[in-house]
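User: two proteins, same treatment. go.

Assistant:
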Amino acid sequence: MGYWVYVKENATIEWQGELANVDIQLYTGYNLIGWTSVEKGNASVALHKIREATVAITWNESMHEYKTYIKRWSHHRGNFDLPMGKGFYLYCTEASRWNGN
């Protein structure tokens, strides 16, 4: 699960609480999730960890455009960082589950 939050000006948003065990149902098609690890990952790592996922997409705030990474085609071109909490879309070819690791 992930959230996109729109604000009209710079804002600081703080989340409170503990991260519960992650067990996310991924459906065939596009899924919006957030990177849950305290260790920074990237699109390539996410697609490697979720075998059924073939495409990762995120919003590039500085360029005001979507950035896409395609498994088996991109070869690290278009790869993007995923710090904790970063939202991104995954395209899955079949239903799956993700535990955040």
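Protein 2:
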Amino acid sequence: MNRILIVFFISAILNLNFSLGPDIEFDNVKYNYGKVKVGSLINHTFNITNNGDQPLVLLKVVPSCGCSVASFTKEPIKSGGKGEITVKFNSKYKPVGLNIKTFTVFSNSKNNPHTIYLKGELL
């Protein structure tokens, strides 16, 4: 009887679906735009890959302040597929010096949410 149970459990374990689900990977999570004059418009596109085995869906990208906006791939990204998140920062009325903007990325990926960054110096 014990052998039958052991065989049953081993069979059940081997037949489990070990799905990874969607898994977002960023080419880079930080972009340094260098030194720019106050009032400059900063644009950058972050490239992403779905390293999971199920479609990745980007739900929303939330900027840290009203001076920034984001757009992103709306359709599901297949396993191994690529997508983009484009961010824009308007430095008008911002103080001179180091400036860091964050964007929180919400998706159906594991380890959700993720944060991406724009960094630079305003002159």
